[in-house]
Amino acid sequence: MNIHFPGLSVCQRFPKHIALAAVLALTAGMASAADLFQVYLDALANDARYAAARAQYVADQEKVVQGRSGLLPVIAASAGANRNDNEIQDLYGQKTDKRYNSESYALQLTAPLFRPQNWRQYQESALQTELAESIFAQETQALILRTAEAYFNVLNARDSLGAITQLRTAAGEQLELARASFQVGTVTVTDVHEAQSRFDLASAQEIAAHNTLDVAHETLARIIGHSPERLAGLKPGVALSDPDPADISAWEDAAEKNDLGVQGQALIREIAVRTLERQRAGHLPTLDLVANISRSNNPSMTAEHNKSRAVGLQFDMPLYQGGSVLSRTREAAALKIKADADLEEARRAAALTAREAYLGVTSGMAQVRALEAAQISSTSALEANRLGYKVGVRINIDVLNAQSQLADTLQQLSRARYDTVLAQLRLKAAVGALGEDEVRAINALLETD
User: Per mean pLDDT, which range of 4-13, 94-103, 160-169, 407-416 is the poorest?
Assistant: First the structure.
């Protein structure tokens, strides 16, 4: 089975995202409703957590430069000036004071020829730069998931408020009908009290739903830097797609290889291997090329001005360093074993995450289909109970229960749809394939003006 899970090229796409986000920010006032892709671009430009990750990524790019410096020559210049006051006593006890100024200048170049530790350090720094790219890619995927979750939480809260408002309106109508019927003696006061109770309950639920919607708006605003006036919702009757391929084992295998967390942990393991090699290299000798030029001016010497040039090799052989090399080697060996275990744990966790996301998609779609059927049944049941109430074969509580059932079904259906969409994004993230294309694909399911 051939499965293609495209990776992320976050670092290459980043400048384009920011430029486009800036343009959309200027024209946001002209848009009638923001969609998921526009909100995602706003998040790229304004999310504080992502901005911190971006700055950390830029900082980590300097690690390879710092590691490379250990392989390059070092040039140092020095200069000194002294005021000398000497008292000289000859064999006959006569003292002579001699005062003079002396200066010295030196320029030295040291080029490493054989430094195993420096080479291992450079390899570590190169891997740390790759790790920084992997971490930044993970933050980009996390931003997509956080933005989508906040976006659909707003839509879900809005749908729930609509369903509860509809329930409150229906309960109010039923309350008025019960009062009118009580006036003519066709129902008892119990029916009025039941209708009043349901109306009050729906009113309380409406207040809570308003609060939930406000919190959802603020959560989204925290990510994108502002609160959009309106968000595009899912198209009516939108059809969600099954996972492709429809094989949970294929997704688990792909997650064990392509999950960004697994890739990052694999890089951490490679860094641990290089660290162990670097610590072991502490026993090895070093060889440097050393060249220096110096000049001194000292009137007390026979030759007042002295110039010297020297080129040579400097060999150092560590013999005993108090046991620190062996200790650091044992420490690095233990950390390498830890990195192996962490990598295996990351693979297992990635497989489990992929399984959960896959089942979230499949079970979510089954729930959506069942709740869509339940919506039709609940609507029919409500109409039948209303008709039965009018002709006297149903009582007030039957109508109220049918209204509540329909409102609850609508809320569950809304939540199931959004959870399924989010599960699709999490499944893509589990195999390291969540990027702009996936955001666009979900965005195509929205009803934009």
Answer: 4-13
Are 318 and 282 spatial neighbours (Cβ–Cβ below 8 Å)? yes
Q: Are 233 and 417 in contact (CB under 8 A)?
A: no
- Name the amino acid, one letter, at 379: T
- Domain range list for the chain: 10-72+115-283+326-447
- 40, 439 contact by CB (below 8 A): yes
Query: pTM (2 decimals)?
Result: 0.82
What tokens were used for 394?
């149903």
Q: Which among 4-13, 279-288, 331-340 has the top mean pLDDT?
A: 331-340
Would you say 64 and 125 are in contact if contact means Cβ atoms under 8 Å apart?
yes
Tell me which CATH homologous superfamily contains domain 10-72+115-283+326-447. Outer membrane efflux proteins (OEP) (1.20.1600.10)
**pLDDT tens sequence across 60-91:** 999 999 999 999 999 999 999 888 887 777 77
Cβ count near 323 (within 10 Å): 8
Where on the phi/psi map is residue 323: left (φ > 0), alpha (ψ -120 to 50), or beta? left
pLDDT in tens, 285-342: 999 999 999 988 877 655 567 888 999 999 999 888 888 899 999 999 999 999 999 9
